[in-house]
Amino acid sequence: MTLPLWTPVRGLALRGLEEATQAVEGGPGNEYVALGTAAFWAAALDEQLMRTYGADYDAVRDADEQGRVLPGIRLVRNGITHGAVIAVRQAGFSWPLTFPIDWGPSIYGPLEALLGDWIGDRMQTKSVPQQDIVYRAHLEGRELPVPLNAAIGWFTRLEHVQWDLDAL
Question: CA 120, CA 100: separation in Å to the nearest integer?
Fold first, then answer.
C-alpha cells in the first residue's frame, strides 16, 4: 500500500524516531533498546518513501548530506532483527580489560562486529553493498545519535513540504 503524499502516519513515524533518538541521547541504560526503536522508525519511513517515489527518492536522498545516512540505519535495523542486538560498542571500561582503554559515549561498532553477530544468511539484495558502504562512512565509530539526528533533519525537511519530493 502506498500512502498519499501527505498523511499523518508519516508524521507519527517521524515523532517516533524523534522520541527514540531523545532516549538514545538520554544516557546509559536506554540506548540499546532506543537505538532499535529509532532504527525501526527511520527504516520504515525511508522504505515507505522509497515505495512512493522509487529511484528518484533514492537519488535525492543519497545526494543529501542528511539523507545519505539512511541505508546505514537500515543495516542497523536489519542487523537487530537478525540477532545483532548490540550493534554498538560502549566506549569505556569493561571487564576483562582490553587495551587500548577508552571511555566515553556509546558508538557504532565496526561493520565486521555487526555482521559477525548476524544470525542466518544475509539476504543479498542490490542495497546490501550500499548499506555496508554507508555504514562504514557515516555510522561506524560515531556516537549513536549523530546519524539518527541527520535522518531526523532529512525527514523534517520532507515533512515541511508535505512529503513532496519534488518540492525540496
Answer: 32
**pLDDT of 82:** 86
Q: What is the pLDDT of residues 112-121, one digit of tens each?
A: 988 888 888 8
Handedness of CA 139, 72, 86, 100 (dihedral sign): negative
The pairing of strands 106-108 and 88-90 is antiparallel
Check the CA dihedral 35-44-83-113 and report its sign: negative
The candidate with the shortest Cα–Cα distance to 130, out of 141, 139, 120, is: 139
pTM: 0.86
pLDDT at 95: 60
Round to whole Å and give the CA distance between 142 and 119: 24
Amino acid at 72: G
For the four alpha carbons of 39, 45, 48 and 52, in that order, the dihedral sign comes to negative
Residue 116, burial from CB neighbour count under 10 angstroms (0-12, 13-18, 19+) = exposed
Q: How far apart are CA 148 and CA 145, in angstroms?
A: 5
